[in-house]
Specification:
By secondary structure, the chain is an alpha/beta fold. The chain has helices at 34-46, 60-69, 88-97, 123-132, 136-146, 158-165, 174-181, 191-194, 204-209, and strands at 4-9, 14-15, 29-30, 50-56, 76-80, 100-104, 150-151. A 5-stranded parallel beta sheet has the order 1-4-5-6-7, covered by helices on one side.
Length: 215
């Protein structure tokens, strides 16, 4: 392989050299060098090893720090985004800075508390889907598409792949968008759960200092 189309920083988190062990222990975490890491990313771009470079799981604060040091701005910020976690503030900032938003978990996922899928179980989305003759998944994907973001969705089912593509020949009404805009917001993918020790080695103050606490 000579190059990749898109190369991303997965999380704005750095660990000491060596094998990564999750959940992360306090002593293994080090401050993230925004300028230094991004210079290395820009060098990959300059050498043609990456056609585009970007980030993932960056908040507006992270992006502000990175852009202050960037010569080549990130092309993409890949974040959790769906009707139940709409990322309005972040999307506005990315649009202002010319950064495209790619939406992972566009159909939600199993909540860490085990209480179901907040997107696919949404009564608001189900009501809209019934009125439009679509599935809840199609309504969620169509909403993301209409926000100008790219949903990252996968399936091993041929039928679902076809269903996921069936979002381009219809649209949501203003009333649909209003209802979706009123859905209570609930983040599913939480860095403090995914990355950090469940034993509480990282306090809320630690996470705030690292700006991992979501906006």
């Amino acid at each position: 392989m000579e190059y990749v189309d898109l190369y991303l920083i997965h999380w704005p988190i750095s660990l000491k050299p060596g094998p990564a062990v999750f959940p992360v222990k306090r002593e293994d975490a080090v401050p993230f060098d925004f300028a230094g890491v991004w210079r290395a990313m820009e060098e990959c771009h300059r050498l043609g090893l990456a056609k585009a470079i970007g980030v993932s799981n960056f908040t507006t604060s992270h992006l502000h720090k990175l852009l202050a040091a960037a010569t080549v701005p990130p092309a993409v910020n890949q974040v959790e985004m769906n009707p139940v976690w709409q990322q309005r503030k972040l999307r506005e900032y990315c649009a202002e800075k010319g950064i495209h938003v790619a939406a992972y978990s566009p159909l939600g996922g199993q909540n860490w508390s085990g209480d179901g899928n907040a997107v696919l179980d949404s009564e608001v989305l189900a009501e809209i889907a019934k009125a439009r003759g679509k599935t809840v998944a199609q309504v969620a994907l169509r909403w993301i598409y209409e926000q100008g973001a790219t949903p990252i969705v996968k399936s091993f089912s041929k039928e679902r792949l076809k269903e996921n593509l069936g979002i381009f020949d219809w649209g949501l009404t203003d009333d649909d968008l209003r209802k979706i805009g009123q859905i209570p917001q609930k983040k599913i993918v939480r860095a403090e759960t995914v990355l950090f020790s469940a034993e509480g080695e990282f306090t809320s103050a630690d996470l705030a200092e690292m700006e991992i606490v979501e906006e």
